[in-house]
């Protein structure tokens, strides 16, 4: 993309000097024969390339773009007067211009003033628009980088401390025969496969997202000997294999529930998760308990980086086609409801 815009900017310069050559040809062929006209065009182009780039690369960046408008106008006017005077003095001296017909001398002066004015005005205009254009491109690129950072945030949000604890538990259980060890390896393998392969894609099926979500829930259950009150109400709908969503969205919301519910630390903590596809709308809902410690966060709404990143990605992929509700529920509970029009 950068190469394309650089080519466009260079093409503007080339096109302008092509037009300038035509202007010089049609304005000076009255005063010069063919041989002298060619040399006049060559010398004028070389001379005005210097004037053009002086305005384009120096006056515009150092004065106009620095909001020094009086200085910019003053120096642009000086360039116009000096370049015009120089042409008026050297062209008749170098070439044998025929000003004998009445009005030709005045016509030559007008031609010089107009052509030099055009050079300076076009150089100023292109220099100003180039800068504004490049700023817009930088804003677009920064926006794209921001979106990529949000995606990377979602992909890297899985708690590495939890994975390390899981590996330590597997190592401890490996000294004695236990079905938990083999099950832990299987669930961890699913989760790592998701992190390494699926999270790098732009979109994955809802079924793939649920596979990683269930693997994460299973690892938590294995860690706490299946004592956690986690309910996953996910029916086996065929649409889950067809409908695709950006990776890590649902998993991130589930991780937030694991974090804020204090599951495994409070015996009364719980998580209720459900998902359906009804009338081309994906409906994902989580209700979780909230501890005394988290109650203040519930009152203000815990919109951390995870939720912000999810909303940003949803706005990119489903503008105007989703609803996201994150609010406290009665009896020290919190709910998150996400609705996406998957065919909207």
UniProtKB/TrEMBL annotation:
It comes from the Bacteria. Keywords: Membrane, Transmembrane, Transmembrane helix. One of its GO terms (cellular component) is membrane. InterPro entries: Bact_2-comp_sensor_kinase, HATPase_C_sf, Sig_transdc_His_kin_internal. The chain crosses the membrane at residues 7-26, 38-60, 72-90, 110-128. Residues 151-228 form the Signal transduction histidine kinase internal region domain. GO terms for molecular function: phosphorelay sensor kinase activity. PANTHER family: SENSOR HISTIDINE KINASE YPDA. This is GHKL domain-containing protein. It comes from Chryseobacterium phosphatilyticum. The lineage of its organism: Bacteria, Pseudomonadati, Bacteroidota, Flavobacteriia, Flavobacteriales.
């Amino acid at each position: 993309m950068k190469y394309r815009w650089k080519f466009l900017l260079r093409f503007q310069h080339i096109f302008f000097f092509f037009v300038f050559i035509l202007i010089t040809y049609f304005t000076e062929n009255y005063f010069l024969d063919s041989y002298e006209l060619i040399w006049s065009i060559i010398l004028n182009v070389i001379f005005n390339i210097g004037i053009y780039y002086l305005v384009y690369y120096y006056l515009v960046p150092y004065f106009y773009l620095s909001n020094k408008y009086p200085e910019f106008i003053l120096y642009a006017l000086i360039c116009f007067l000096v370049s015009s005077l120089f042409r008026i003095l050297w062209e008749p001296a170098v070439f044998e211009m025929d000003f004998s017909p009445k009005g030709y001398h005045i016509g030559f002066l007008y031609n010089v003033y107009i052509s030099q004015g055009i050079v300076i005005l076009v150089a100023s205009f292109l220099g100003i628009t180039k800068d504004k254009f490049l700023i817009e491109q930088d804003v677009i690129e920064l926006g794209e980088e921001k979106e990529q950072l949000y995606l990377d945030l979602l992909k890297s949000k899985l708690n590495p401390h939890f994975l390390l604890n899981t590996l330590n538990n597997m190592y401890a259980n490996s000294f004695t025969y236990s079905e938990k060890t083999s099950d832990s390896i299987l669930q961890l393998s699913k989760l790592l496969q998701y992190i390494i392969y699926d999270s790098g894609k732009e979109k994955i099926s809802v079924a793939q997202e649920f596979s990683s979500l269930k693997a994460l829930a299973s690892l938590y259950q294995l860690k706490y000997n299946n004592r956690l009150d986690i309910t996953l109400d996910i029916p086996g709908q065929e649409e889950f294999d067809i409908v695709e969503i950006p990776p890590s969205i649902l998993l991130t919301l589930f991780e937030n529930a694991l974090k804020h519910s204090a599951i495994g630390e409070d015996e009364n903590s719980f998580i209720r998760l459900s998902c359906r596809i009804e009338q081309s709308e994906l409906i994902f809902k989580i209700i979780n308990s909230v501890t005394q410690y988290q109650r203040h966060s519930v009152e203000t709404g815990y919109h951390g980086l995870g939720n912000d990143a999810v909303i940003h990605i949803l706005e990119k992929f489903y503008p105007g086609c989703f609803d996201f509700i994150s609010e406290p529920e009665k009896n020290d509970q919190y709910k998150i409801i996400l609705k996406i029009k998957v065919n909207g």
